[in-house]
Fold:
Amino acid sequence: MDRLHRRFVAPGDLVFDVGAHVGDRVASFRRLGARVVAIEPQRAMACVLRILYGLDRSVAIEQMAVGRAVGAARMMINVDNPTVSSVSAAFIDAARDAPGWETQRWTRAADVTVTTLDALIARHGGPAFIKLDVEGFEAEALHGLSQAVPVLSFEFTTIQREVALGCIARCSALGYAGFNAALGESQALSDDWMNAEAIARWLVELPQSANSGDIYARIA
Structure:
């Protein structure tokens, strides 16, 4: 993870970890000497983040979701696997009984505050890198960003390829020209970056069994 992030993050850089969960990426960014804004809407996970990083002056914790507009949303909670809790009803509909998702159930709900990437930039400054992992709400989050940052990543799933295709289109509109991808939790990128058309074709051609991964976008 550190080897991957070192390609985009230098000591002193600011990073937004959107969907920070319990902070494994936060730990990586801090090991690289970056300052981190950890954004996580779930109360239990935000509590864990405060326990782990509440005394670290280089980590700011924001207990909220990220979308295209400031407001509020209803979050469906997966108690047994909270990392796939989501404010996207479409994501949950796509996941129900999909191959590999049969055991997942969203049995609780909570109202959460929603902010935007633009609002976070206004409050904390411009990041060198944004990581988005928000369970089907990535395109909505990117529509709340009006200015490109040097590099960002967003999670994709094969049960909702249309969301990732929307993210690619939004990134292109913001001026991102280079794209790459890491499957699953491999944390491995190739040295060959693709244009938007090529990464979209790669995504469409992925077998359903690939399940998920992260797409990276850079300006140059």
